[in-house]
Amino acid sequence: MTIIASPFLFAAISITAAPLPTPADGYFQEVRKVTEHVWVLAQPKFQVQPIGNVTVIEQSDGLVLVDSGGSPGAGRRVVERVRSLSKKPVKAVVVTHWHGDHPLGISEILKAWPRARTIATSATQEHLRTPKTMNTSAVPDPARNETLQQQFRGYADYSRKMAGEAKTDEGKAGWAGAERLFNQYVRDMDGALTLTTAEAFADRLAIPDSKVPLEAIFLGRANTDGDALVWLPKQRVLVTGDVVVAPIPFGFNSYPADWIGVLEKVKAYDFRVLIPGHGLPQTDRRYLDALITLLRAVRAQVGALVEKGLALEQVREQVDLSAQATAFAGKDAWLRQWFDAYWTQAIVVAAFREAKGEPIVQSLN
Asked: Fewest beta carbons within 10 Å, which of 4, 69, 240, 308?
């Protein structure tokens, strides 16, 4: 997932004595052992501005990371946590897709292990070097860096305002936590760089090992046009990137019909554990089935409205995903708000463009 700007107002307001996340906020990634030789660094709960999971895979001669954290600060914490798990060097980083919360820790990881390979699909490699998809540069740029930090100060200020206006305890607590999160992002994004990968693959790239072999694979367009997954056949662990995200998916600039096909392929893998791009590891296919059902419901509703000749805004007004919101977010008003913002509003646009035969373009907007 990329940096989300649409729900927030920009404001270049300095924050003094800014409150920072508490352990209860679940902002910082925690280490969870998945199986022998495999760990995941994951945020334990949904975040308004999320950081993608980082999977750590121990091979005989070094470690392979899947994704890298969403900022230089997150990258530094990844380095610390990885070193606490193994004395082996990181020998490779596989980036699942271009959304900023997955590759922006690479610069710090390469400071610690400069010989590490960096790998992505060809589409993702290209996006990481393209200004339209990244809002940080490949070389230090103080002016651009300050602009980015000012944006996060603005998000924090807006969150503080919303906490003051919230009419429920859920809302007050949620927006107060968002303010602390964005204050931490101001720190974590200092010096942010986007580094494209040194290597790219089209369909499959193997990193052999006698005990923990792995394959980076591309199964088709889904959340983006270049989603990489990583399969560990001996451990039967499948790392999906944002092809699978829990507790609520992200739908920005995605490919609904292709996504369903990719999820069906994912279901066919004989995995014991599935590690999503966000959220905790899964051991069955129930969430995959829920995602497929959700995408089919979106396509059916949007397709029928497009056939009637309705414009996008009319389609948005008439699509009803309230039952699906309950299935994914329950009665939690805070989660339901973000299900609407990060899923419904976004996926309806993608499904509309798909139904109209219009291109779906990967971009920050």
From this structure: 308
φ/ψ of residue 112, rounded to 5: -80, -40
CA distance to 223, 248, 314, per residue, from 340 (Å): 17, 10, 16
- Taken in order 295, 300, 305, 308, the sign of the CA dihedral is positive
| 168 alpha carbon, distance to own chain's centre | 28
What is the C-alpha separation between 342 and 319, in angstroms, rounded? 15
Helix (H, G, I), strand (E, B) or coil at 164: helix
Q: Which domains can be identified in the chain, with CATH numbers?
A: 23-135+193-288 (3.60.15.10), 294-356 (no CATH)
SS3 content of the chain, % helix, strand, coil (to 5): 40, 20, 40
Given pLDDT bands bounded at 50, 70 and 90, which one contains residue 130?
Answer: confident
What values do phi and psi take at 200, rounded to 5?
Answer: -140, 155
What span, in angstroms and rounded, lies between the C-alpha atoms of 81 and 197? 22
Q: What are the Cα distances from residue 276, in Å, to 195, 228, 279, 298?
A: 23, 12, 6, 21
Q: H or E stretch including 276?
A: strand 273-278
Residue 253 has pLDDT above 50, yes or no: yes
Cβ-proximal residues to 93 (8 Å cutoff; 6+ apart), any chain: 64, 65, 66, 67, 68, 106, 109, 116, 117, 118, 119, 197
For residue range 131-172, what is the model confidence (pLDDT) as tens digits? 677 778 898 889 989 999 999 999 999 999 999 999 999 999
Strand-pair partners of 361: none
Q: Hey, CA dihedral for 240, 242, 247, 253, is it positive or negative? A: negative
Q: Does residue 3 carry a pLDDT above 80?
A: no
**Which tokens is 279 given?**
């959220």
The H-or-E segment that residue 83 falls in is helix 72-85
The confidence band for 258, taking pLDDT boundaries of 50, 70 and 90, is very high
Q: Which of 154, 145, 150, 21 is nearest to 77 (CA)?
A: 21
Cα of 43 vs its chain's centroid, Å: 11
